[in-house]
Structures
1.
Amino acid sequence: MKIRMGKSNQSLIIVISTLLSLSFMVSSISAKEARYPEFGNGRIPQIKAKASEYMVSSANPYATEAGLRIIEKGGNAIDAAIAVQMILNLVEPESSGIGGGAFSLYWDNANKKLTSYDGREKAPMLADGKLFQQNGKNMNWWEALAGGRAVGVPGVVAMLEKTHKAHGKLPWADLFEDAISLAEEGFEISPKLGASILNKTNPALGRYEETWEYFFPEGKPIAAGTIQTNPDFAMTLRRIAFLGAKGFYKGEIAMDIVAAVNEATDNPGLLSVSDMANYEAIERAPVCADYKEYKVCGMGPPTSGGMTVLQILKLLEDKNLAQYAPLSVESAHLFSQAAKLAYADRGKYMADADFVKVPVEGLIDSDYLKERAKLITEKDMGKATAGAPPNADTNWKDAKSPEQASTTHFSIIDKEGNGFSMTSSIEMAFGSTLMVRGFLLNNQLTDFSFSEEKDGDKIANRVQPGKRPRSSMSPFMVFDKDDNLMMVIGSPGGSRIINYVAKTLLGVLEWNMDIQNAISMPHYVNRNGNTDLEKSTDAISLKEGLEAKGHKVSVRDLNSGLHGIVRTKEGLEGGADPRRVGKALGK
Ligand code: GLU
């Protein structure tokens, strides 16, 4: 099977597709309003969206609009989510897609039931703790991520099919129509995608022929504003629309994925057709905790997101944060201390609970966290060490697994009041940079610890065959005391996701901010190290005050992509992150 196109076909296809896209540009650009406002100072203006019946907030206007169309046609939140994800794969390919994995929460409003779904990538059965070692040493992260080595079995299609079979209303195939037409007719390259290609956010972008041809037609990066088609992706979607998930996990698409992974000769992987055929998405119990009068729920292992966000909230519950301004030294200090304690536990205990014992209940146990909260004082605590939560195996060794900023999050509330919160990722921007049939493959296995053990003790998040790498993805929902859904939220941002989501939850629940203000608020972040303040924002005014408390402060870009919805007395309110190019809209 041919993974990369031969040279002769290539030039013919370039000529034909250039002609096609030129003719399309003439007919459509003049008719089209500018879809994306200008980035000013790295931010776009975002105003709070309002609606009475239903709402979608996602990282791209095409996706938000497609989700709304599905709901207008009688679809529910799950149906809309499938359309949103397929469009995002097309228009925000650097962040998520069918070549990657996802976690989601679904709120079934009629039955007052919350379910969570795990569509995380799995390590191939041939992979083991030596996957990221060369000559007895850990590989360089940047070398590990490109090519086949870090590609896990993708989970998005299986997860969406499972949610749709359980709760969907409209026929599966109908949910792909918008993405297929947009892929065939063309879409406008967003400023975010244009900049990511131009700056090669992923240095390996273009290393492999198929990816080069798509993102650098005629050797030049596709620029923001260009109208782009992706006929290969349209064909892929038609197949999945017609055959369901088996059209992806078995047969020619699966074989092409396996071939691309194994034939990336500079850094081949270990994926097999049976890894593909045996993949299953899993319905799991969500993790919930009470925070004041609210019930706050996230996703359990293999993501660390749910437990770590809940730990931060619980550690702060008795600190009366509301007495301080959200952007004050006191708030940033307390938040960062809670985050340090939570990240220390995350590093030691959190991994795929199907492989290692994760003390899920113990980690969010109120008494345990009340004791831990006593470690928070007026001064910075330095590096926090992990605690000993109830039922924990304390022999695990802490490990780092760096995660970079790509990924996407979208939130949906439909006419019946059902909610969907999905964070979806191919890990690094452009993932492994391998492209198959119009979509990119993930490099999610780099979320594993590269080392197997430390000082003779095993690391919980080490690579094991069939295991899912620890994640930080944190799709969340909040309920009031009568079990009414009141908030849907999540974000990309690598392991900083946890900070972004926890801080936005506090913005709404503690500081009574509206969702847009809570999302737009400048960031302060701590992952058990420096306190990061968001560059070019008012957050840097906190620097001196934090340093006086003993913090090591760094000022940097903090690229969240928070997309959320809150139900207020007046109706639905939606927010989209000014740091990306998305939109919240509703009716
Ligand atoms: N791979 C990361 C995770 O699963 C997400 C990466 C990102 O947000 O950029 O937690």
2.
Amino acid sequence: MSVLDKDRIVKLRDDIHYHNHRYYVLDDPEIPDIEYDRLLRELEALEKKHPELITLDSPTQRVGSEPLSSFSQINHLLPMLSLSNAFEDGEVNDFDRRAREKLGVDKIIYAVEPKLDGLAISLLYENGVLIRGATRGDGVTGEDVTQNVRTIEAIPLRLQGDDYPLKLEVRGEVVMTKSGFDKLNESQRKKGDKVFANPRNAAAGSLRQLDSKITATRPLMFYSYAVGLVEQGSVAHSQSDILLKLKSWGLPISSEVKQVTGVNGCLEYYESIQKKRDALNYDIDGVVYKVDNIEQQKELGFVSRAPRWAIAHKFAAQEEMTTLLGIDVQVGRTGALTPVARLEPVFVGGVTVTNATLHNQDEIDRKDIRVGDTVIVRRAGDVIPEVVSSIKSKRPARTKKYKLPTSCPVCGSEVIRLDDEAIMRCTGGLFCSAQQKEAIKHFISRKAMDVDGLGDKLVEQLVDTNNVKDVSDLYRLDMQTLAGLERMAEKSAQNVINAIEKSKDTTLARFIFALGIRQVGETTAKTLANSFGNLTDLMAANEEKLTAIPDVGPVVADSIAHFFHETHNRTVIDKLIDYGVHWADIKIDEDIHKPLENQTFVVTGTLSDMGRDEAKSALEQLGAKVSGSVSKKTNYVVVGEKPGSKAAKAESLGIEMLDEKAFKIFLQKVQTSR
Ligand code: IVH
């Protein structure tokens, strides 16, 4: 027998034991689940090769770890089992084939369910009353968390109906909702308390709280998926019917459970749930297929601690481990410095990731992430990949804390951090070539000047070769310059020239948006164009005039005024106009632009989103009269939350009322009709 295998087995057991303890006992895992699964699988494979080396205390013989001593221990009336995993369709096919062969049938009916990513729990009901709640622990012995379980509103303290068994163990998963998780972390951060890595850790941390008052404040949810001991009564003869029974007794079950036929039905279900995954309000890490018929389940039986009649089909991991090779700093259009992790390529969330965001200096400090670290990278759905944490026990010697540079890595200008911002910014403005490039990319983008065929790479070349410094230089480009650039054929050069020429004929709204004024997005640009009608008036407007425009608050007004105050910006605008950029001014005809003239409005109650003053000024802008009291002459009453007598009066007079949502839609319609 190979000595190497033996050594490896010992090492794997030690490692798994360590990670098990961190995961189950400390609620603070160091490595992603997928890595843990890999270690366990490797150990399983080696033990299969050398069965004589299996020991009683091998992690393969015991799921989970010892419970914390501070909770009392209880014995489950029936052990809590685990599931074997499949990562590929082939493994699901094998599972189905083995089951069919053993049962001697052509097709199996399966109950299919999401695999909830929370924490398994066993609830004991006697005479319909919840008397105990316990964590899984090692599957045989768990922790008594009854006080905490009782705080979870989704878990009934008493069962409904009259046909439940007198003694019943219900098994299911405690999870934290995604929305609840986000809120919890936000408030933890504000209080300076521990931030949880993901909803599962947060659920585990909340349920294994010694103070049940804290648990009570946590957004926990529970879904049942099985029964344990059943005495003095019966449940049902299939998994699907068991779930329906549990539901009828008041126990929540996932809305995604289904019954399907054969392995194809299972695989189709996998696809459909994977598509829905992001939209669900709780995390799942795969789906579970269970032979539906209980008689067939009994016939199939168990291998060690997992049933032969069920399998978990896991999704591609959303978290993976890799090495942080370096940290690059990107400079955005507004000068914001973003630290970006350069990673040893890693397959995560279905794609190969080589870069991930580190957000900002505060996040790097909080997570203590250093170059050379082994880090956990997360990519969920369409979200930008991020570095979640680093594994301190794997840190190489002599690493240094990372600090963002104090001068811009692109132009060398000073980097500043405003008091209330987490973000650091380069002060180089349009002197900084990174900001030049981003400003130009924005200027030519589809919703701005819409210059077709001028790609990012070309913009970068033009700036790097000093042919373009600011956006006005685009309109001075000639064939010779363009065709002289790398990878630029004459035909494409001509296309670019044509596209630039075509973009000269634009609209005021597009032009304002294209300038890239901070805080001025597409919608604000349109509002500004429609309110001022021409650029000269907009450029001359002071903050008072600007804040009178709907949607323009003091911060936006300040940003606009500053932009036009800057000589450099005025010069660029003059040059653009000189080179032939033009648009039709909008005629502001007071009559046409006051569509609510002769209409009287009353605003009452609290408008949570826009505020009462903002609502009034929006109405006045459109020519409406805003009055303080409701009379027969009132045309509309805008009703916020907790309205007083005005709403009641309006109701009695039969005046049309708009709640905040309806009012916003109304405003939008009127504004666009102008
Ligand atoms: S059934 C006999 N159904 O997965 C099978 N488990 O590795 C007992 N889990 O500890 C489990 N969703 O925490 C089952 N729909 C589901 C599940 C599910 C999540 C968890 C559970 C269990 C682990 C098994």
